[in-house]
Amino acid sequence: MSETADASHSPTLPLPPPKNTFQRIAGVLFAPASTFEDIARKPDVLVPMLLILVIGYINTFLMMPRMDWNAVSEAQIEAIKAKNPQMTDADLERVSRMTQAFGKVAGWFGPLFGIVWWLIMAGVLLLAFRLMGGQGTFKQALSTVLYSWIPMVIYYIVVTIVAVGRGKIDPTHMVTVVKSNPAFLVDMKEQPILFSLLSNFDVFTIWMLVLLIIGCAAFSKTSRAKAAAIVLSLWAVMILIKTAFAAMAAAKMKVKTT
């Protein structure tokens, strides 16, 4: 009787203090299960987001001077000529300047667009898991998304290193600069739909998805099998939408050239 009473009143061991941002970054790479449990217990957003943004702008600073914007404008001019052969050289030159200017501005705003994407991802994931009986808060979901994004940070660092080594990069071929997905096996102009589809099966994207599954299971208190079903279903929907847009663009280009 006394042993039972002693056991019921035994003090619980205190939880370890939460890891800092850099410990968590290392943890999601080498010990994701325990790290995402720590993130779910005490999520953080500001420091990892700022760190990713700083790295993103360093990459942008190094990449922008190496972007071959002429290749982008030439491709657009080719499409415009096919649709409007009567356009003058002055008009085409104006389109070329606008295209290059827009590309440069968009490139500098790219890291900031990432914030919007992370917020959308966190909101969609939280809604999906709550609808399927899971738990969690928006802060937990956003923190999970940010730390799951680390493989993509590594990817952009690798892309930047390759770009610096090459000297010039065609922005329209960014997804195949690093041969981490099978899209490089097909020609983007001849098979745009297949190119778009294959580009989704990137090693770094799959790595991110695995981390998302582990992290979402931790904050939502669901099984990893259920988390995998939800995350992969949402990913499949995104692939379908992206492929549909590629198909519409390809059909539009086909109409222009016929």
3D structure, described in words:
This protein has helices at residues 2-8, 21-30, 32-41, 46-63, 69-83, 89-131, 138-148, 150-166, 192-199, 203-220, 224-257. With 258 residues, it is mainly alpha-helical. The protein has a domain at 50-64 and 112-257. Helix 6 crosses helix 7 (138-148) and helix 9 runs antiparallel to helix 11. It is elongated, with a radius of gyration of 23 Å.
Overall geometric form? elongated
> How many angstroms separate the termini?
90 Å
Secondary-structure content class: mainly alpha
Largest sheet: none
The total of beta strands comes to: 0
> Strand percentage, roughly?
under 5%
Please report the number of helical segments: 11
* Fraction of helical residues: over 70%
* Average of pLDDT: 86
What is the alpha-carbon Rg in Å?
A: 23 Å
Which terms summarize this structure?
258 residues, mainly alpha, 74% helix, 0% strand, disordered N terminus
Brief sketch in words of this structure:
With 258 residues, the protein is mainly alpha-helical. Helix content is 74%, strand content 0%.
Layout of helices and strands:
Elements: H1 2-8, H2 21-30, H3 32-41, H4 46-63, H5 69-83, H6 89-131, H7 138-148, H8 150-166, H9 192-199, H10 203-220, H11 224-257
Helix pairs in contact: 2-3, 3-7, 3-10, 4-6, 4-8, 5-6, 6-7, 7-10, 8-10, 9-11, 10-11
